[in-house]
Write a structure and sequence with these properties.
The protein has about 500 residues and is mostly helical. Helices cover about 80% and strands about 0% of the residues. α5 packs antiparallel against α6 and α15 runs antiparallel to α18. The chain is globular.
């Protein structure tokens, strides 16, 4: 079955969605694709909040000695593994999600992903046991994994090349909104839960609130895309993604259960989950090597894929543990630490669109996207080193100083991401962009799987977060080195 024509990336220059009757056509004003940007931004917001909420909830459980973390010998290591297992599921549907989007239509997979994530997040709030919690978190990740590659491809296909990086940045600003909502809002969601639940069960409210929000956005997206959707195609795509997800769930949980019963550490279990993803890449090469060769065997794309490991390591290390890092360093309350940590996530609200705009502006001035991405990465690396040094040097770190360092480092970190997405879109063949973005995030999510677990292990073994932050800084530098090897062709004219 082929994708609907309107979902297939169009030749450059792209006209994308057909202008609706009465659409504003004056330069500088609203265009038809701007409403699509807003809708996808909302999709990013709710899906990011769903995945980021686990970190603050785990931190609250550890601080209050409740739930399945109450009696854990190494609670931060176990909490980090829970976060890593979510991303194990998330990464395993990155490539299948993009491939299915190329086949069934990118709008179709976006709708399936949002509705799936909303339902699974609501269900999370009804479960309490460790294994059940892990299973439903992995299932949530498996559904959300289909969003990224199809969103990036749809943005590319519906936006004129001169505004492509800006579009990438504006839309993914929802990631910053979502993570900020999860980090800053979780203490308030838990307080709301105490109105209707016993205090030890109040964490459930965070999942119910965010799950309902995701479901509503999913329904709104379904309505917006209604002229591009067919019930039969949606059902086929859901069944096909469900088949991938079922196999992936069995594999992820088998690795966890076997590793746990064999006495392996939480870190080694996370490493085995990464090995599972590597096996999926090799399987894709063996099964579809000829068809997908342009995105699997392209040297420059593959360097971008590897550099994405550092990006996602940094993103989800701080998104998962920032509240605990700030609270542990400053000995502050959970609510105060969440507010300070929110500076890290909130910087994306400025950084994502600013980086996208700068990228498009720079290309029109003759700069390369690679040089812009390298500049942002270099500044981020220096600021991350400064944060690590401050944590170790200050006897009682200031909330304000930590907030400023987190904000400025995150500003440049978030700015570089839409630049990289636009660069990937330019290097990948148009008909395989969904697969390219899926493979990029599949490999990159290695960092998201490992960083919460590795960070938690280092915290439990050293008694502080300093070593984990230094490791994060080193990985950012490694990502910079990989980016220097990417060869780029001339960017599309503005």
């Amino acid at each position: 079955m082929k994708a609907a024509p309107e979902d297939v990336p169009a030749p450059e220059p792209v006209t994308g969605d057909r202008p609706r009757k009465g659409a504003v056509g004056v330069a500088g004003r609203l265009r038809p694709w701007h409403s699509l940007w807003l809708l996808l931004l909302l999709g990013w917001t709710v899906s990011a909040a769903d995945r980021a909420v686990t970190g603050p909830v785990v931190s609250w459980m550890i601080d209050n000695g409740v739930g399945f973390l109450a009696d854990a010998d190494d609670p931060h290591a176990l909490g980090g593994l829970i976060g890593g297992l979510f991303f194990a599921g998330y990464m395993l549907t990155q490539f299948p999600g993009g491939y299915l989007g190329d086949r069934y239509g990118h709008r179709t997979l976006i709708v399936v992903s949002l509705l799936w994530a909303g339902i699974a997040t609501i269900v999370t709030g009804f479960l309490g046991g460790l294994i059940a919690f892990i299973v439903v978190r992995v299932v949530t990740g498996l559904g959300e994994g289909a969003f990224y590659s199809n969103d990036r491809t749809l943005v590319t296909a519906t936006t004129p090349p001169r505004d492509r990086s800006l579009a990438m940045g504006v839309v993914i600003t929802g990631l910053a909104f979502g993570i900020t909502i999860a980090i800053v809002g979780t203490p308030h969601f838990i307080d709301m839960g105490k109105w209707v639940l016993p205090d030890v069960e109040a964490w459930r409210m965070a999942f119910w609130i965010l799950g309902v929000a995701t479901l509503l956005v999913g329904l709104a997206t379904t309505w917006y895309f209604r002229t591009h959707l067919q019930l039969r195609t949606v059902c086929l795509a859901t069944a096909h993604l469900g088949a991938y997800a079922a196999v992936s769930l069995i594999l992820v949980m088998a690795v966890y259960v076997i590793g746990d019963r064999s006495g392996l550490s939480d870190l080694w279990i996370a490493v085995l989950e990464v090995a599972l993803a590597a096996g999926l890449v090799l399987f894709a090469l063996a099964r579809k090597g000829e068809e997908l060769g342009p995105v699997l065997k392209n040297r420059d794309l593959f360097l971008l894929y590897l550099a994405n490991i550092a990006i996602l390591w940094n993103l989800w290390f701080f998104s998962f543990w920032s509240v605990s890092i700030v609270a542990g360093a400053a000995h502050s309350s959970f609510a105060s630490a969440a507010l300070t940590a929110g500076f890290n996530a909130g910087a994306g609200i400025l950084g994502f669109p600013a980086g996208g705009w700068l990228s498009d502006y720079g290309v029109r001035r003759g700069w390369s996207r690679k040089s812009i991405m390298l500049s942002c990465t270099a500044v981020q690396a220096l600021l991350t080193v400064a944060f690590a040094w401050y944590l170790g040097a200050a006897e009682r770190p200031s909330l304000w100083v930590m907030g400023v360092l987190l904000f400025t480092a995150s500003l440049f970190f978030n700015a570089l991401q839409p630049v990289g997405h636009a660069l990937t879109a330019e290097l990948a063949p148009p008909e395989l962009r969904g697969s390219a973005f899926g493979m990029e995030n599949l490999i990159g999510e290695t960092g998201a799987v490992l960083s919460p677990a590795v960070g938690g292990v280092l915290r439990d073994s050293t008694g502080s977060w300093t070593a984990a932050v230094w490791l994060d800084a080193a990985i950012v530098v490694a990502g910079f080195c990989l980016l220097t090897g990417v060869r780029t062709r001339k960017s599309l004219p503005g």
